[in-house]
Specification:
7-stranded mixed beta sheet, 1 helix, globular
């Protein structure tokens, strides 16, 4: 019997460039952990169905490289339910790369992330 790893992809945008990217998430215990990020265009994201994925993200793995464009090491989720990259060690202010809303970051234990729309 082989040990299979359950993986998925959710979408985010770079908060510096506003360019779409994919985040590979891996099932670990009761939630999903971000393990890798990669450039991704909208057509491929839609064709692969990544815009329909929803997962309960509980954190980032030590090997998570951050945003493929600006290298920010973490992420935030806006009230519009979309994700963008952040560096919480540098600022607690966040401007959503999807809708433009400006917010102060609030730390949470986990988030329910989905792809959805461009």
């Amino acid at each position: 019997m082989s040990d299979s790893i359950e993986c998925n992809v959710v979408l985010a945008k770079c908060s510096k460039t506003q360019i779409l990217f994919g985040i590979r998430v891996e099932k670990r215990g009761k939630g999903w952990v971000m393990t890798w990020a990669f450039p991704l265009d909208e057509k491929r994201a839609k064709n692969e169905g990544f815009d329909k994925n929803t997962v309960n993200i509980i954190g980032t793995a030590p090997e998570y490289p951050g945003c493929p464009y600006c290298k920010k090491p973490s992420f935030a989720m806006c009230r519009c339910q979309k994700m963008g990259c952040i560096d919480p060690s540098k600022t607690l202010k966040y401007k959503c790369p999807w809708c433009g809303r400006k917010e102060t970051l609030v730390m949470v234990e986990e988030i329910n992330a989905s792809g959805g729309g461009y």
